[in-house]
Structure prediction request, 98 residues.
Amino acid sequence: MVLMTKLVAEKLSFGDNVNDFLSCSNQRGVVTSQTISLLEEPDIEMCENGHTAQTLMGLVVRVATNNVLNNFCKLRNDIIHDNAQKKAAARKAATPKK
Prediction:
């Protein structure tokens, strides 16, 4: 479930789909629903607390989606920060020294 979530999020967040995915207002919902639709329901009976396999899958996929999207945001922010530092270094190097 976690690997499938990671693959779905990567497919949506890189390449041709990135602009549509970023403009979406509920990225977590999109990744979660796509992942659950791709997963086959396991042959697990209802647990003693009344949780079905679908409920457990939803919980695991939702947590995995949070982690994957958190990592994606950190990666994007690191790229933005690195570009800003490079521009600042170039600007500083171009400034005449007294």
In short: The radius of gyration is 20 Å. The first helix runs from residue 2 to 13. The mean pLDDT is 87. The helical segments are 2-13, 18-23, 27-38, 53-94.
